[in-house]
Amino acid sequence: MTEASTASPEQPGLFPGTEVERVTPAPDSISVPSTRMAAAIDEDAGERAARTRNSMLWAAYGDALGFISELVDRKGLERRTRGAPLDHLMEWRRRVGGRSGVDVLLPAGCWSDDTQLRMAVGRSLGCHGFDVETFARVELPVWLSYALGGGRASKAAARNLGKQRTLWYANTFRGWANAGGNGAAMRIQPHVWASHDLVDDYLLDVITDSVCTHGHPRAIVGACFHAATLAYCLGTGTVPDSRTCADIARNIGDVLPLIEDHGTLGATWIGLWQQETGNEFRDVWRLTARELCVAINDAVGRADDTEGVEAAYAAIVARLGLENEEQQGSGILTTVAAVALAAAASKAHEGVLTAANATGTDTDTIATMTGALLGACDGAASPPEEPLDSDYLRAEADRLVAVSRGEQADNYTYPDLLTWSAPETQADALVSDNGGLAVEGLGPAKRLAADAIYTARRDFAWEWVRTDFGQTLLIKRRPEVKPLEAGNNLTPPPTPRGRSNRQAAKPGRRTSNRRALKPLDRGVKVDDAIEYAREQITDDTALGYTVRRVARDGTIADLAALVTALRDDLRH
C-alpha cells in the first residue's frame, strides 16, 4: 500500500505558512448530585470559568494520551511510541479506514472520537438549549467522515441517522436496544459545562443526547452518573467521595420520571424499546441503577490499603473487570473507574497518565473522563502540553460558560433541516464550495497539507483540513470532490435578543432540558416549507416535522399558508 503523504495537521514545522421537545417538570424529590452541593457552588464566576477551561483541556489531553494506547497490548504500545514511555504527547502512526485504508502520522495531541463527539455536542448547545435534532441529523452523520475511532453502536447509530426518515428518538438500528457502552458518557460533558445550577438542569439533555446512539439503560445511567460527578467537581472543586457517589447513584435511580414524562421519550421511545426487548423499561432501569451502586461500592474509595495511584488503579481495574473484553467499554464500569481513579490521584496529570498506561482497558475514554473530573477541581494545573486545537477548545469552554451564565453566546451555523441531506457515504462530506473546500453541515474548511493520503487503488483519500471554527479534521474524500449538495447551505444561527433566558426557563429547582421560554427562532421561508411538504406528502413524519417547524419559527400567516396548501393538495 502506498501513500502520497504522511503529513499531519499544523504543528510547529509541519505546515509552514499554511429541536427540542416540551418538557414535563420532574418531581421535586429529584436532585443530582444533592442540594448540599448546590449550596457549595462557588460564587466566583471567574473560578467557574477557569475550572471549565481546565476540565475541557484535561479531557482532551487525557483522550490524546489514551488514544495512543487504545486497543493494543504493551508490545503494541511500545511500537507506537517507538520505545518511549507514554508520559507525554507525541506523534504516532495509525491505520485509518480499516484494512483497505491508509497509514497516517498523527500529530502530538491528536484526539480521538471521544473529544470529536464531545465538541459536536458542544456545538449543538447554545443560549436556547440543546438542539438534539441538529446533533442527530447533522453532527452525527457527518462525524463518520472524520471519525478517529468510535464504537460499533455510535457508528451504526450515526449511519442510520443519515437516512432522511430516521428520528433521534426512534433510531432503531440493529442492536440499538442493547447498546450499553460508554459512547454516550464520554461526550456529555458540555451539558454540564453549560449548566446554570449544576444540580440537575442538565440531566434531560444528557438523556436525550444518549438515546440518539445508545438504547440500553446501562449507557444512559452511566452518562447521567458521569455528568453528575463532573457537576460535583465543577461545583465544589473536589472529587466526590464514595458516600457522595452512592448518593448520586441512588438519585439517578429516581430520574426515570424524566424519561417517562417526556413528550417523545415516554410516548414513543420507551414503547419501541419494550417492543424490541420484551422487557419492562422501568424494571431494567432500576436493575441498572443497582448495578451502578454495586460498582461504586466495589471500586470508589477502596484503595486506602494500596501504595500509590498505579497500585490503586490496578486494584480498581481488577475489581471492576475492566480487562474483560465483554465489559471494557461498559457505560457503568468505565464511568465508575474514572471517578474512582480521580479520587485516588493527587493531580490531573497523574490520573490521566495512569489511565492511559493501563493497556487492556478502554484507555482513552477512562483517561478523558478522569481528565474532565480532575481538571474541574480546585488547584488543577493546566496540562503540561497543548492538545490539538487548544485555542478552539478554550474558546468553546468560554462560550459554554457564557451559556451557563445566561449571557449572549454565539450559536453555530447549520443547514436548514427542511432541505438538509446527509452525505451518502463517508467520502462525500468533503465538498467544493465557492472555489474552496467545505465540510457538509459544518461549513468552509482549509486544506492543511499539499497532498492527500491515497489508498493503494487511489479510489479514496484522507486529507487534513481545518474548519472555520478551528477544528482539525482528517477527513475521508473522493479523488474528485463533489460540489456542495443543493439545500445544504448554512443558514444564519438564531440571533439572541439580549440575554439568554435559559436560566429564566427554570423556575425553582426544575429539572429540564433548559429550553428557553422564547422559541429557537431559526427563521423559516414558508415557500420552501410548502415545497418540502409537497415533496414529502405521503411521509407523516416529514409532514409533522414541517408543521412543527413552521409553528415554532414562523408567523401565524405562515402556518395558515402551509396548512391551506397541504389541505388543497391532500383533497385533490
Written description of the protein model:
This protein has 572 residues and is of the alpha+beta class. It has three domains: 329 residues, ADP-ribosylglycohydrolase fold; 67 residues, no CATH class; 46 residues. Helix content is 45%, strand content 8%. It has 21 helices and twelve strands. Strands 6, 7, 8, 9, 10 and 11 form a six-stranded antiparallel β-sheet that branches. A two-stranded antiparallel sheet has the order 1-2. A hairpin with a 5-residue loop joins strand 1 and strand 2. Helix 9 runs parallel beside helix 15, helix 15 packs across helix 16 and helix 15 packs across helix 17. The radius of gyration is 23 Å and the shape is globular. The N terminus is likely disordered.
Q: What's the arrangement of secondary structure elements?
A:
Elements (H helix, E strand, L loop, with lengths): L34 H6 L4 H25 L4 H8 L10 E5 L5 E5 L6 H11 L1 E2 L2 E2 L1 H12 L8 H10 L27 H5 L9 H9 L5 H20 L5 H12 L2 H5 L4 H13 L3 H19 L8 H13 L12 H12 L3 H9 L6 H13 L14 H15 L9 E2 L14 E4 L2 E4 L3 E5 L5 E2 L6 E7 L4 E6 L12 E2 L34 H10 L4 H14 L2 H16 L1
Antiparallel strand pairs: 1-2, 3-4, 5-12, 6-7, 7-8, 8-10, 9-10, 10-11
The total count of helices amounts to 21
**Separation of the first and last Cα atoms:** 60 Å
Number of strands: 12
Low-confidence stretches: 1-31, 38-43, 495-513, 515-521
